[in-house]
Amino acid sequence: DTGVSQNPRHKITKRGQNVTFRCDPISEHNRLYWYRQTLGQGPEFLTYFQNEAQLEKSRLLSDRFSAERPKGSFSTLEIQRTEQGDSAMYLCASSSTVRSNEKLFFGSGTQLSVL
Amino acid sequence: GQSLEQPSEVTAVEGAIVQINCTYQTSGFYGLSWYQQHDGGAPTFLSYNALDGLEETGRFSSFLSRSDSYGYLLLQELQMKDSASYFCAVRRDGGYQKVTFGIGTKLQVIP
Lengths: 115, 111
Hints:
The structure holds 2 protein chains of 2 kinds.
Chain A: E1 5-7, E2 10-13, E3 19-24, E4 31-37, E5 44-50, E6 53-57, E7 65-68, E8 75-79, E9 88-95, E10 105-106, E11 110-114
Parallel strand pairs in A: 2-11
Antiparallel strand pairs in A: 1-3, 3-8, 4-5, 4-9, 5-6, 7-8, 9-10, 9-11
Chain B: E1 3-5, E2 9-13, E3 18-25, E4 29-37, E5 44-49, E6 53-57, E7 60-65, E8 70-75, E9 84-92, E10 99-101, E11 105-110
Parallel strand pairs in B: 2-11
Antiparallel strand pairs in B: 1-3, 3-8, 4-5, 4-9, 6-7, 7-8, 9-10, 9-11
């Protein structure tokens, strides 16, 4: 399977705990995006990487959120001191800068529930 | 800032044609994409318009008018499996290319 892979699929945590999600993009894709989606809403942009460089981070994100993409391959999204409002589906997407660069390929997401 | 508007829900009959509209406001507009998302699934790419006009991909077509900041997705010969949410998304120009999604239109296809 050469699609975008996200782990874990589901995460249940208690308020105040830290969580980390992983995204493995399609191997030849150098662009990687993180989005958050709640029920009945569209994906909300969180941050964007081109290779290992984080080029944009949403102003909506608090300092509790951080993302990395070491070596321009997989990426991690960490949420510190989780709050109930962080409960959402966290989606990762990747795209190429060369072929079909208008297409975002999404992973199946990580569903976070903060109790 | 950026904004996209699309209807929240649409109901159509199996075999019919449905059009889902999207209006947008953004600086540095580069192109308009459409994505489909079934309940519990990931968004999947349907089509993309960077230039004015109609793009056809099988039963799905997408239209863009840059001067009107308007686009639509046309679904023909509706099938039950087309019941899903449809999102328009704007792609902005620049050294990076952020993609911003609308809130989505939930399409229900009825027999």
